[in-house]
Amino acid sequence: MESNIDAVARAKSPLNDTRKKRFTIFYAEQIGLVDIATEVKNYIKAALKKSPPIQTHFSAEV
Question: Over the stretch 23-39, which tens digit does the pLDDT of each residue have?
């Protein structure tokens, strides 16, 4: 039983380290993937809100 507990403890340590690294990659402030994806989404939304000059020109004539 003791050997099983030791084996689990040895296997769990690298797993926890990997989970911490994954968390940092996803959620680190300003450099994490979640923050970057949110900024990209906001940029695209802002860029699409602006109407193109041609469309504005045509809608002014109608």
Answer: 999 999 999 999 999 99
What is d(CA 25, CA 31) in angstroms, rounded to the nearest whole number?
8
Q: How far is CA 52 from CA 42, 57, 59, in A?
A: 18, 9, 11
Residue type, 37: A
The parent domain of residue 44 ranges over 2-61
pLDDT at 59: 56
Q: Euclidean distance between the first and final Cα of the chain, in Å?
A: 82
- Between CA 27 and CA 38 the distance in angstroms is 11
Number of domains in the chain: 1
H/E run at residue 40: helix 33-49
| Sign of the alpha-carbon dihedral angle for 13, 14, 17, 22 | negative
